[in-house]
Protein backbone atom coordinates (compact mmCIF):
# COMPACT_ATOMS: atom_id res chain seq x y z
CA UNK A 1 0.00 0.00 0.00
CA UNK A 2 1.39 3.41 -0.94
CA UNK A 3 1.92 6.21 1.61
CA UNK A 4 -1.07 8.04 0.17
CA UNK A 5 -3.47 5.31 1.31
CA UNK A 6 -1.43 4.01 4.20
CA UNK A 7 -1.86 7.27 6.13
CA UNK A 8 -5.66 6.83 6.17
CA UNK A 9 -7.59 4.35 8.32
CA UNK A 10 -10.41 2.13 7.03
CA UNK A 11 -12.89 5.00 7.44
CA UNK A 12 -10.65 7.34 5.42
CA UNK A 13 -9.54 9.31 8.50
CA UNK A 14 -5.98 10.52 8.90
CA UNK A 15 -3.99 8.35 11.27
CA UNK A 16 -0.58 9.58 10.10
CA UNK A 17 0.31 12.71 8.12
CA UNK A 18 2.95 11.73 5.59
CA UNK A 19 2.04 13.36 2.29
CA UNK A 20 -0.61 15.60 0.72
CA UNK A 21 -1.01 13.25 -2.26
CA UNK A 22 -4.16 11.18 -2.11
CA UNK A 23 -5.95 13.46 0.36
CA UNK A 24 -9.29 15.00 -0.57
CA UNK A 25 -10.52 18.58 -0.48
CA UNK A 26 -12.50 17.53 2.61
CA UNK A 27 -9.38 16.39 4.46
CA UNK A 28 -7.60 19.66 3.69
CA UNK A 29 -10.61 21.82 4.50
CA UNK A 30 -11.10 20.05 7.83
CA UNK A 31 -7.48 20.80 8.78
CA UNK A 32 -7.82 24.44 7.69
CA UNK A 33 -11.10 24.92 9.58
CA UNK A 34 -9.78 23.37 12.79
CA UNK A 35 -6.57 25.43 12.47
CA UNK A 36 -8.71 28.53 12.09
CA UNK A 37 -10.57 27.71 15.31
CA UNK A 38 -7.23 27.17 17.09
CA UNK A 39 -5.57 30.31 15.77
CA UNK A 40 -6.93 32.47 18.59
CA UNK A 41 -5.50 30.28 21.36
CA UNK A 42 -2.25 32.27 21.22
CA UNK A 43 -4.17 35.47 22.04
CA UNK A 44 -5.62 34.04 25.25
CA UNK A 45 -4.32 34.66 28.74
CA UNK A 46 -3.58 30.94 29.05
CA UNK A 47 -2.24 29.80 25.67
CA UNK A 48 -3.23 26.17 26.22
CA UNK A 49 -5.97 23.65 25.49
CA UNK A 50 -6.27 20.27 27.23
CA UNK A 51 -6.70 18.27 23.99
CA UNK A 52 -3.51 16.19 24.21
CA UNK A 53 -3.15 16.18 27.99
CA UNK A 54 -1.40 12.96 29.03
CA UNK A 55 -0.04 12.29 25.52
CA UNK A 56 3.66 12.19 24.75
CA UNK A 57 5.01 13.66 21.52
CA UNK A 58 8.58 12.96 20.41
CA UNK A 59 10.29 15.19 17.86
CA UNK A 60 12.84 13.16 15.90
CA UNK A 61 14.88 15.60 13.84
CA UNK A 62 17.68 13.99 11.83
CA UNK A 63 18.15 17.18 9.78
CA UNK A 64 18.58 20.87 10.62
CA UNK A 65 15.46 22.86 11.40
CA UNK A 66 14.48 26.06 13.19
CA UNK A 67 10.85 26.97 12.39
CA UNK A 68 9.44 23.49 11.86
CA UNK A 69 10.96 21.94 15.00
CA UNK A 70 10.08 24.82 17.32
CA UNK A 71 6.55 25.29 16.01
CA UNK A 72 5.86 21.55 16.33
CA UNK A 73 7.16 21.75 19.88
CA UNK A 74 5.01 24.79 20.70
CA UNK A 75 1.96 23.21 19.03
CA UNK A 76 2.32 20.10 21.22
CA UNK A 77 2.78 22.22 24.35
CA UNK A 78 -0.23 24.40 23.57
CA UNK A 79 -2.28 21.20 23.36
CA UNK A 80 -0.92 20.20 26.81
CA UNK A 81 1.10 17.21 25.54
CA UNK A 82 4.42 16.26 27.06
CA UNK A 83 6.97 16.84 24.35
CA UNK A 84 10.58 15.94 23.98
CA UNK A 85 12.92 16.73 21.15
CA UNK A 86 15.65 14.26 20.39
CA UNK A 87 18.77 15.98 19.21
CA UNK A 88 20.08 13.40 16.78
CA UNK A 89 23.50 15.05 16.55
CA UNK A 90 24.11 14.00 20.17
CA UNK A 91 22.05 10.77 20.15
CA UNK A 92 23.19 7.19 19.65
CA UNK A 93 22.47 7.39 15.92
CA UNK A 94 25.97 8.86 15.63
CA UNK A 95 27.30 5.77 17.47
CA UNK A 96 25.96 3.54 14.72
CA UNK A 97 22.53 2.65 16.12
CA UNK A 98 20.10 1.88 13.30
CA UNK A 99 16.98 3.96 12.74
CA UNK A 100 14.81 1.01 13.76
CA UNK A 101 16.73 0.44 16.99
CA UNK A 102 16.49 4.14 17.90
CA UNK A 103 12.78 3.88 17.18
CA UNK A 104 12.23 0.77 19.29
CA UNK A 105 13.94 2.44 22.25
CA UNK A 106 11.85 5.59 22.07
CA UNK A 107 8.73 3.48 21.54
CA UNK A 108 9.61 1.66 24.76
CA UNK A 109 9.17 5.02 26.52
CA UNK A 110 5.43 4.82 25.72
CA UNK A 111 5.01 7.77 23.40
CA UNK A 112 1.97 8.52 21.25
CA UNK A 113 3.34 10.53 18.35
CA UNK A 114 6.55 10.88 16.38
CA UNK A 115 7.31 14.01 14.39
CA UNK A 116 10.04 13.06 11.93
CA UNK A 117 12.43 15.05 9.75
CA UNK A 118 14.99 13.11 7.73
CA UNK A 119 17.17 13.67 4.69
CA UNK A 120 15.96 10.43 3.08
CA UNK A 121 12.74 10.53 1.06
CA UNK A 122 10.32 7.98 2.54
CA UNK A 123 11.83 8.02 6.05
CA UNK A 124 8.63 9.13 7.80
CA UNK A 125 6.61 6.48 5.98
CA UNK A 126 9.19 3.83 6.89
CA UNK A 127 8.85 4.80 10.54
CA UNK A 128 5.04 4.84 10.31
CA UNK A 129 5.10 1.28 8.95
CA UNK A 130 7.25 0.05 11.80
CA UNK A 131 5.77 1.69 14.88
CA UNK A 132 3.06 0.26 17.14
CA UNK A 133 -0.43 0.84 15.72
CA UNK A 134 -1.50 3.47 18.27
CA UNK A 135 1.41 5.80 17.41
CA UNK A 136 0.78 8.62 14.92
CA UNK A 137 3.66 9.72 12.68
CA UNK A 138 3.86 13.21 11.20
CA UNK A 139 6.25 14.00 8.38
CA UNK A 140 8.20 17.19 9.09
CA UNK A 141 10.12 16.93 5.79
CA UNK A 142 11.66 13.87 4.09
CA UNK A 143 14.42 14.52 1.57
CA UNK A 144 13.08 16.10 -1.59
CA UNK A 145 9.81 14.22 -1.26
CA UNK A 146 7.25 15.95 0.93
CA UNK A 147 6.69 18.56 3.63
CA UNK A 148 2.94 18.29 4.13
CA UNK A 149 2.55 20.42 7.28
CA UNK A 150 4.42 23.25 5.51
CA UNK A 151 1.99 22.95 2.57
CA UNK A 152 -0.94 23.16 4.97
CA UNK A 153 0.42 26.26 6.70
CA UNK A 154 1.06 27.78 3.28
CA UNK A 155 -2.50 27.20 2.05
CA UNK A 156 -3.83 28.33 5.46
CA UNK A 157 -1.92 31.61 5.08
CA UNK A 158 -3.16 32.02 1.50
CA UNK A 159 -6.77 31.31 2.53
CA UNK A 160 -6.65 33.99 5.24
CA UNK A 161 -5.77 36.58 2.60
CA UNK A 162 -7.38 35.15 -0.53
CA UNK A 163 -10.07 32.57 0.24
CA UNK A 164 -11.24 31.78 -3.31
CA UNK A 165 -8.80 29.11 -4.53
CA UNK A 166 -10.38 28.52 -7.99
CA UNK A 167 -9.77 32.16 -9.00
CA UNK A 168 -6.18 32.26 -7.69
CA UNK A 169 -2.95 32.61 -9.63
CA UNK A 170 0.02 31.30 -7.67
CA UNK A 171 3.68 31.40 -8.75
CA UNK A 172 6.34 29.25 -7.08
CA UNK A 173 9.82 30.54 -7.88
CA UNK A 174 13.33 29.13 -7.66
CA UNK A 175 14.74 25.75 -6.77
CA UNK A 176 11.71 23.55 -7.48
CA UNK A 177 13.87 20.50 -8.19
CA UNK A 178 15.10 20.02 -4.63
CA UNK A 179 12.06 21.42 -2.87
CA UNK A 180 9.75 19.18 -0.87
CA UNK A 181 7.89 22.40 0.00
CA UNK A 182 7.08 23.08 -3.67
CA UNK A 183 5.96 19.49 -4.32
CA UNK A 184 3.60 19.38 -1.35
CA UNK A 185 2.27 22.88 -2.00
CA UNK A 186 1.49 22.09 -5.64
CA UNK A 187 -0.51 19.03 -4.53
CA UNK A 188 -2.39 21.01 -1.87
CA UNK A 189 -3.22 23.89 -4.24
CA UNK A 190 -4.45 21.44 -6.91
CA UNK A 191 -6.66 19.57 -4.45
CA UNK A 192 -8.19 22.89 -3.34
CA UNK A 193 -8.97 23.68 -6.99
CA UNK A 194 -6.48 26.51 -7.63
CA UNK A 195 -7.04 27.75 -11.17
CA UNK A 196 -3.50 28.75 -12.17
CA UNK A 197 -0.36 27.28 -10.59
CA UNK A 198 2.94 28.38 -12.13
CA UNK A 199 6.51 27.35 -11.49
CA UNK A 200 9.26 29.78 -12.47
CA UNK A 201 12.81 28.42 -12.59
CA UNK A 202 15.82 27.73 -14.76
CA UNK A 203 15.64 24.38 -16.56
CA UNK A 204 18.35 22.96 -14.30
CA UNK A 205 16.20 23.53 -11.20
CA UNK A 206 13.00 21.89 -12.44
CA UNK A 207 12.10 18.21 -12.03
CA UNK A 208 11.55 16.20 -15.22
CA UNK A 209 7.95 16.29 -16.41
CA UNK A 210 6.95 18.87 -13.84
CA UNK A 211 3.97 19.77 -16.10
CA UNK A 212 2.41 16.46 -15.08
CA UNK A 213 1.79 18.00 -11.65
CA UNK A 214 -0.67 20.37 -13.34
CA UNK A 215 1.53 23.47 -13.35
CA UNK A 216 2.50 25.95 -16.07
CA UNK A 217 6.26 26.34 -16.52
CA UNK A 218 8.03 29.67 -17.01
CA UNK A 219 11.76 30.29 -17.33
CA UNK A 220 11.44 34.06 -17.44
CA UNK A 221 10.53 35.63 -14.08
CA UNK A 222 8.82 38.84 -15.32
CA UNK A 223 6.60 36.81 -17.64
CA UNK A 224 5.64 34.27 -14.96
CA UNK A 225 4.88 36.92 -12.33
CA UNK A 226 2.35 38.77 -14.45
CA UNK A 227 -0.91 39.27 -12.50
CA UNK A 228 -0.24 36.59 -9.88
CA UNK A 229 -1.99 36.85 -6.50
CA UNK A 230 0.59 34.86 -4.55
CA UNK A 231 4.37 34.59 -5.02
CA UNK A 232 6.14 31.77 -3.17
CA UNK A 233 9.92 32.14 -3.15
CA UNK A 234 12.22 29.17 -2.47
CA UNK A 235 15.77 28.90 -1.17
CA UNK A 236 18.51 27.36 -3.32
CA UNK A 237 18.86 23.99 -1.55
CA UNK A 238 22.59 23.66 -1.97
CA UNK A 239 22.80 20.75 0.47
CA UNK A 240 20.75 18.65 -2.00
CA UNK A 241 22.51 19.73 -5.19
CA UNK A 242 24.85 17.38 -6.93
CA UNK A 243 27.35 19.16 -9.15
CA UNK A 244 27.08 22.69 -10.48
CA UNK A 245 23.50 23.48 -11.43
CA UNK A 246 23.97 27.23 -11.28
CA UNK A 247 26.50 29.73 -12.56
CA UNK A 248 26.60 31.92 -9.40
CA UNK A 249 24.31 33.31 -6.72
CA UNK A 250 24.64 36.80 -8.17
CA UNK A 251 23.56 35.60 -11.58
CA UNK A 252 20.65 33.69 -10.04
CA UNK A 253 19.52 36.83 -8.22
CA UNK A 254 19.75 38.84 -11.44
CA UNK A 255 17.47 36.42 -13.23
CA UNK A 256 15.21 34.99 -10.52
CA UNK A 257 15.58 37.20 -7.44
CA UNK A 258 12.38 38.94 -6.28
CA UNK A 259 12.86 42.70 -6.21
CA UNK A 260 10.30 45.48 -5.74
CA UNK A 261 10.40 46.24 -9.47
CA UNK A 262 9.57 42.67 -10.37
CA UNK A 263 6.91 42.35 -7.72
CA UNK A 264 5.21 45.35 -9.37
CA UNK A 265 4.33 43.01 -12.26
CA UNK A 266 2.17 40.87 -9.98
CA UNK A 267 -1.37 41.80 -8.96
CA UNK A 268 -1.34 44.99 -6.81
CA UNK A 269 -2.60 42.99 -3.79
CA UNK A 270 -0.23 40.07 -4.27
CA UNK A 271 1.27 38.50 -1.16
CA UNK A 272 4.86 37.24 -0.91
CA UNK A 273 5.60 33.98 0.87
CA UNK A 274 8.72 31.98 1.71
CA UNK A 275 9.01 28.85 3.88
CA UNK A 276 12.31 30.08 5.32
CA UNK A 277 15.19 30.15 5.86
CA UNK A 278 15.48 33.14 3.52
CA UNK A 279 18.74 34.03 1.81
CA UNK A 280 18.63 37.79 1.35
CA UNK A 281 20.11 38.94 -1.93
CA UNK A 282 20.03 35.40 -3.38
CA UNK A 283 16.34 34.66 -4.05
CA UNK A 284 14.75 37.70 -2.39
CA UNK A 285 15.63 41.34 -1.85
CA UNK A 286 15.40 42.59 1.76
CA UNK A 287 12.95 45.34 0.76
CA UNK A 288 10.53 42.66 -0.42
CA UNK A 289 11.17 40.22 2.43
CA UNK A 290 10.54 42.97 5.01
CA UNK A 291 8.03 44.90 2.91
CA UNK A 292 4.26 45.37 3.25
CA UNK A 293 3.34 42.48 0.92
CA UNK A 294 5.44 39.93 2.78
CA UNK A 295 3.54 37.39 4.92
CA UNK A 296 6.68 35.37 5.70
CA UNK A 297 6.45 35.80 9.47
CA UNK A 298 2.68 35.20 9.42
CA UNK A 299 3.48 31.82 7.90
CA UNK A 300 5.60 31.03 10.96
CA UNK A 301 2.81 32.05 13.36
CA UNK A 302 0.22 30.11 11.35
CA UNK A 303 2.42 27.02 11.48
CA UNK A 304 1.57 26.59 15.15
CA UNK A 305 -2.23 26.49 14.70
CA UNK A 306 -1.95 24.26 11.63
CA UNK A 307 0.31 21.79 13.43
CA UNK A 308 -2.02 21.84 16.46
CA UNK A 309 -4.90 20.93 14.11
CA UNK A 310 -3.00 18.07 12.47
CA UNK A 311 -1.84 16.72 15.84
CA UNK A 312 -5.41 16.81 17.19
CA UNK A 313 -6.85 15.09 14.13
CA UNK A 314 -4.27 12.32 13.89
CA UNK A 315 -4.52 11.51 17.56
CA UNK A 316 -8.27 11.26 17.09
CA UNK A 317 -9.27 14.25 19.15
CA UNK A 318 -11.08 17.25 17.93
CA UNK A 319 -10.02 20.46 19.57
CA UNK A 320 -12.40 22.22 21.87
CA UNK A 321 -13.81 25.45 20.54
CA UNK A 322 -11.73 28.51 21.25
CA UNK A 323 -13.08 30.45 24.23
CA UNK A 324 -13.51 27.42 26.43
CA UNK A 325 -11.07 28.12 29.24
CA UNK A 326 -8.90 25.33 30.59
C1 LIG B 1 12.09 24.17 4.20
C2 LIG B 1 12.54 22.73 4.37
O1 LIG B 1 13.23 22.39 5.31
O2 LIG B 1 12.16 21.97 3.51
N1 LIG B 1 12.06 24.94 5.35
C3 LIG B 1 11.10 24.80 6.31
O3 LIG B 1 10.71 23.72 6.68
N2 LIG B 1 10.58 25.92 6.83
C4 LIG B 1 12.71 24.85 3.05
C5 LIG B 1 14.20 25.06 3.06
O4 LIG B 1 14.94 24.44 3.81
O5 LIG B 1 14.64 25.87 2.22
Can you lay out the helices and strands and say which pair or pack?
Blueprint: H1 3-6, H2 25-38, E1 56-61, H3 67-78, E2 82-87, H4 99-107, E3 113-118, H5 123-130, E4 136-142, H6 148-161, E5 169-173, H7 180-191, E6 196-200, E7 216-218, H8 221-225, E8 230-233, H9 249-256, H10 260-263, E9 271-273, H11 286-289, H12 296-314
Parallel strand pairs: 1-2, 1-3, 3-4, 5-6, 5-8, 6-7, 8-9
Helix pairs in contact: 2-6, 2-12, 3-12, 6-7, 6-12
Description:
With 326 residues, this protein is of the alpha/beta class. It folds into two domains: 3-146 and 301-314, Aspartate/ornithine carbamoyltransferase (Rossmann fold, 3-Layer(aba) Sandwich), CATH 3.40.50.1370; 148-295, Rossmann fold. The chain is built from twelve helices and nine strands. It has helices spanning 3-6, 25-38, 67-78, 99-107, 123-130, 148-161, 180-191, 221-225, 249-256, 260-263, 286-289, 296-314, and strands at residues 56-61, 82-87, 113-118, 136-142, 169-173, 196-200, 216-218, 230-233, 271-273. The strands form two sheets. It has a five-stranded parallel beta sheet. α7 links the parallel β5 (169-173) and β6 (196-200). α2 packs across α12. It is globular and about 55 Å long. The protein starts with a helix and ends in a 12-residue tail after the last helix. Mean pLDDT is 92; it is low at 319-326. Residues 67-68, 141, 147, 150, 180-181, 235, 237, 275-276 line the site of N-carbamoyl-L-aspartate.
